Amino acid sequence: MKKLSRRATLLGLMAMTSSVASGAVAFAAPHPLYGGEAEIQGRDLSLLPPAESPVDFPIERVDLDDIPETFHRQLVPYHGFEEPGTIIVDPSQRLLYLILQDSMALRYGVGVGRAGFGWSGEATVGMKRRWPRWLPPEEMVARDAKAATWMNGMPGGPDNPLGARALYLFANGQDTLYRIHGTTEPSSIGKAMSSGCIRMLNEDVADLFDRVPKGARVIVLAAEI
Q1: Chain-centre distance of CA 105, in angstroms?
Q2: Distances in Å between the alpha carbon of 194 and those of 76, 112, 114, 191?
């Protein structure tokens, strides 16, 4: 009952039903889309692309007719007690909220990868990148010819699976390996996917990126797959 009421406090009248994350900080395990420091081992660092692209490519808007209206970016009422500027991620409902002033929130649809279901807790935006690079992990390089092409890192850009922007979540000063990022697959919004974390339309993650500063508070609710 305590967890349910905490969720109700967080999301007010947003009618979200899955259970809330506990207050304890957890850390995600490394996962296939991002990789950690260990993933740099065995790579040619002289070929490592920049952490973010030096070119800020234009973002092509998608046809929203192909995405259910529930997952379109929209203003919704919020009657909880979180401060404006807080991000709330609800993997179970494939939704992300940015709390605004005047009892309102911006709601975005998201796609959720396996890693997006594997971590919950509270964090802060520790790093922000435009058109971030991608480092495929060794196991992906071994089984996927496309990933093997980028074993030393794929530069950020329109074809990069991390999309136009990425927010990197940190807790207790350490990288949780939990990411909120764009996508090259708009049709994945509103769905559970096999890889990645929390993916958004490129136009939506760019909107969120511009609205939240480094240090913004993030609450990731416990997921029910």
Answers
A1: 18
A2: 29, 8, 5, 10
Between the CA of residue 206 and those of 26, 108, 124, 197, what are the distances in Å?
A: 27, 12, 18, 17
Q: For residue 169, what are its two tokens?
A: 């979540």
| pLDDT for res 24 | 37
Cα 33 → chain centroid: 12
Residues with active-site annotation = 181, 197
Report whether 179 contacts 163 (CB < 8 A).
no
Residue 82 φ then ψ, to 5°? -75, 150
Round to whole Å and give the CA distance between 158 and 56: 10
For the chain, list the domains and their CATH numbers.
2-220 (2.40.440.10)
pLDDT in tens, 180-193: 999 999 999 999 88
161 vs 131: CA distance, rounded Å: 10
Which residues make Cβ contacts (< 8 Å) with residue 32, sequence separation at least 6? 114, 115, 136, 137, 139, 140, 195, 196
pTM of the predicted model as reported, rounded to 2 decimal places: 0.81
Cα-only R_g, the chain = 17
- Contact between 86 and 219 under an 8 Å Cβ cutoff? The reply is yes
Structure tokens at 172: 């207790």
Per-residue pLDDT of 26-47, as tens digits, reads: 434 444 444 445 456 667 878 8
Closest by CA to 169, choosing from 108, 112, 114, 214, is 214
The pair of three-digit structure tokens given for residue 11, joined into one six-digit string: 């999301």
